[in-house]
Design goal:
Shape of chain A: rod-shaped
Largest sheet of chain B: none
Radius of gyration of chain A: 63 Å
Helix content of chain B: over 70%
Strand content of chain B: under 5%
Largest sheet of chain A: 13 strands, mixed
Oligomer: heterodimer
Distance between the termini of chain A: 159 Å
Number of strands of chain A: 15
Largest interface: A-B, 57 and 73 residues
Order of helices and strands of chain A: HHHHHEEEEEEEEEEEEEHEHE
Strand content of chain A: 25-35%
Number of strands of chain B: 0
Helix content of chain A: 25-40%
Shape of chain B: globular
Number of helices of chain A: 7
Structural class of chain B: mainly alpha
Chain lengths: 396, 190
């Protein structure tokens, strides 16, 4: 019954299957037909395949041609049952396998979800850690800023308080003098308004740079040359801790008093210069009029002298004597000159009156500058002077 | 194919029409043992499962009705094939299908079928044993086609393969079963 497959075309079985299923096309049917007609081997194989097909059809129970009560009479029941059991077993195995696959798939999915969740959780933790770190850094920066701000604020407050204190101190006391001239002045405390016209109360003042003129309410005019450290006591009295001053005392300010660490000076209507050196010695130069000097000595008798115009004295803290020294006529020239008004002129002028006497006369004369002495008013010039610029006021 | 004269539905015989229970049981026994051969004959001629089912249904009804005419001890398969032959002719007259084997091819098949099917010692129990030797997937394919009667297209969709692959699978399975049965009958195991 065995057929020689070599004599059968390779796709012959395929053509047979297509024919049985009803899907064979005309060309395929032609080829099948031709083989069946011309090839006896293929024809025999064809019939055998049909026998297999028929057998399967019958075996698998699809061909229920008989009434149900008659089908039980079929032979080979045991083998049919065996086949049915095998098929059922296949079905069970298939279902079990499907269930197992589903189970494995679910497990894999669960594992995947768990892994994903863990990864996400780790990522979240990492991000949270980073966020916390960033937040901590921000807080740190904010704290620093707040601290700086607080310190700054505190410093500002302290400065304000200090300023206010200074201001209070400067403004709370009685006004004793007015700042009437200022040349390149720089005070120890910047809060102090060092513009001319500023009213000064009884307080300590320290001039680090420049020259200023202070006019006491009683009329005394004092030129301070930096560095100088003073204390304004009242409208007619001051203390010179250190530095140099030149004073011009009008008659209405008679009795103007200057104290130094080693002595006291009382003006008796005059013009004088005073210098307190770093060793607290005091030098007095009287250019006009006279002054009364008194040496300070604790618990001992008072030493005092009247010093006249053209005389100079030094008093040191560790000596009981008042020393005579050479008058330095021009020692305070600079002080006078720097605080006087400067007017640029087109020609030379003549100095018509001396005052202050200590001022170096020849230095005042210039072909380009006119120095108008405050006291010298209503001066008649011998020729016309072109004034280019001037401070406010009347100039003849 | 040496068939008896036509014994269609016009042939009236009261004796044949009154088949008793014993005859019915006998008929069922013979049919069960040989229907695959008769069905194979119909399939060979029509080359179409659906058509073959219809004709087999008709032929079985006629055989049952005319079983009284069957002479016990004679060839049941040859008797059945004769009835099937006329059922095929009747069917072909009713169904005007254009896609059919040529008359020449059918003639050669009818000539050889009797010889091949008669000498075939094909046994159903051998087929069943050979089915059990198939791998599970092939058994599932057989079940889908022969038990559930799914079309090849439907099977292809269910297993997620193309139709051509399923055709090749069934060609392979049928060949394998044929070889298995032949080896079994030749005395060797599979």
């Amino acid at each position: 019954m065995m057929v020689d497959k070599n004599k059968i075309p390779e796709d012959f079985t395929y053509l047979v299957e297509a024919a049985l299923d009803g899907s064979i096309d005309a060309d395929q049917l032609y080829r099948l037909d031709e083989e069946i007609v011309k090839n006896p081997t293929a024809r025999e194989y064809y019939i055998q395949l049909m026998l297999i097909h028929a057998g399967l059809h019958q075996t698998m129970g699809a061909m229920n041609l008989l009434p149900p009560d008659q089908q039980s009479d079929a032979t080979e029941v045991s083998s049919a049952r065996l086949l049915a059991e095998a098929i059922n077993k296949d079905e069970r195995i298939r279902k079990e396998r499907e269930a197992e696959e589903l189970h494995q798939s679910a497990l894999a999915k669960k594992k995947e979800v768990k892994q994903f969740s863990e990864e996400m959780f780790k990522k979240f933790q990492e991000e949270e850690r980073r966020r916390q770190k960033k937040l901590a850094y921000k807080l740190y920066r904010a704290r620093q800023r707040r601290l700086v701000l607080s310190v700054g604020t505190l410093a500002a407050c302290l400065s304000l308080v200090f300023g206010l204190w200074i201001h209070h101190k400067l403004t709370s006391g009685p006004v004793v003098a007015t700042l009437t001239r200022s040349e390149g002045a720089q005070w120890e405390n910047n809060l102090l308004v060092a513009e001319p016209g500023t009213q000064l109360i009884a307080s300590d003042y320290k001039l680090n740079k420049g020259f200023v003129e202070i006019t006491f309410l009683d009329g005394a005019k004092v030129i301070l040359e930096a560095p100088v450290n003073i204390n304004l006591k009242n409208t007619n009295q001051m203390f010179l801790h250190s530095g140099k001053l030149a004073a011009n005392i009008p008659p209405e300010a008679y009795g103007f008093r200057v104290d130094t660490p080693s002595a006291s000076l009382i003006d008796l209507g005059t013009e004088f210069g005073l210098n307190v050196t770093p060793d607290n010695s005091s030098e007095f130069h009287v250019f006009k009029g006279k002054v009364s000097l008194k040496k300070n000595k604790d618990g001992s008798r008072e030493i005092s002298q009247i010093i006249n115009s053209g005389q100079a004295r030094r008093i040191t803290p560790d000596s009981d004597e008042i020393q005579k020294i050479q008058l330095s006529r021009y020692a305070f020239n600079k002080s006078w000159k720097e605080v006087l008004y400067f007017i640029r002129t087109s020609s030379s002028v003549e100095q018509v009156r001396e005052a202050p006497v200590s001022l170096e006369r020849n230095r005042l004369e210039s072909s380009s500058k006119l120095r108008l002495i405050h006291e010298q008013q209503n001066v008649t010039l011998d020729k016309e002077v072109n004034i280019i610029s001037a401070i406010p006021g009347t100039h003849n | 194919m040496g068939k008896n004269p036509p014994q269609g539905e016009n042939h009236q015989t009261n004796t044949n029409d009154n088949v008793n229970d014993a005859q019915t049981k006998h008929f069922v026994h013979l049919l069960t043992a040989n229907q695959h051969r008769i069905y194979a004959y119909i399939l060979s001629v029509l080359a179409n499962s659906s058509d073959a089912d219809d004709v087999m249904q008709e032929a079985t009804t006629v055989m049952l009705r005319k079983f009284g005419e069957f002479q016990p001890g004679t060839d049941f398969v040859a008797w059945g094939m004769t009835i099937a032959h006329y059922s095929i002719l009747s069917f072909k007259n009713k169904q005007k299908r254009t896609v059919r084997l040529s008359d020449e091819a059918i003639k050669t098949i009818e000539t050889d079928a009797g010889e091949v099917l008669k000498k075939s010692d094909f046994r159903m129990d051998s087929l069943k044993q050979c089915i059990l030797k198939l791998v599970m997937r092939d058994r599932q394919l057989i079940k889908m086609r022969y038990y559930h009667e799914f079309s090849i297209k439907s099977i292809a969709e269910r297993v997620g393969m193309n139709i051509r692959s399923i055709y090749r699978d069934f060609a392979r399975i049928h060949e394998a079963l044929l070889r298995c049965i032949q080896r079994k009958l030749a005395g060797g195991d599979i």
